[in-house]
Amino acid sequence: MARGKIQMKRIEKATSRQATFSKRRNGMMKKAYELSVLCDAEIAVISFSQRGRLYEFSSSNMQNTIERYRQYAKEDMAKKANMEQYMLHLKHEAVDMARQIELLELSKRKFLGQGLGSCSVNELQEISGQLERSLSIIRANKEVFLSEENSRLREKYGEMEKPWQSASSVQPKEAGICSLSSQSSDVETELFIGLPEMRF
Fold this sequence. Notes:
Structural class: mainly alpha
Largest sheet: 2 strands, antiparallel
Helix content: over 70%
Radius of gyration: 53 Å
Strand order of the largest sheet: 1-2
């Protein structure tokens, strides 16, 4: 005959309740012993009956196991407390970052000329000063860039002028040759201009 499923609720009859406790307690102790032997685990089981009687099982020393449990629970509570503090710190940082982003967005809109109607005179002066400082930094950076670029171009074109200078040193001779050739061509032109004179 198949056994019916036991409902998980308090057994009302005292004798049945005591019998069930004794039977299941022995089964629990047996399972704890088997688990400690098969898996080489440190097992400790403590139970009190309804009348206050103590039943216990320990695979090693009960006091050492309890002390080990207390130490682990203490460290675990400390870890949880540290984790809660860390999470709270992260939440505060997230709130501060969101506030800073909002302020930056507001400043950006003001720099772009948006929402200036609600600014006070001091705020407008502060914005003007920040813009002036930014422009000064941009001008200084631009001057440095142009100076470096000019230096680079001087070095580049200074090297290119050297071959032209060597060629210019030969220019007087070439000019003399050109003048001579032009003179000879003028002479030849004077000799051959016009038709020869015919005599009868």
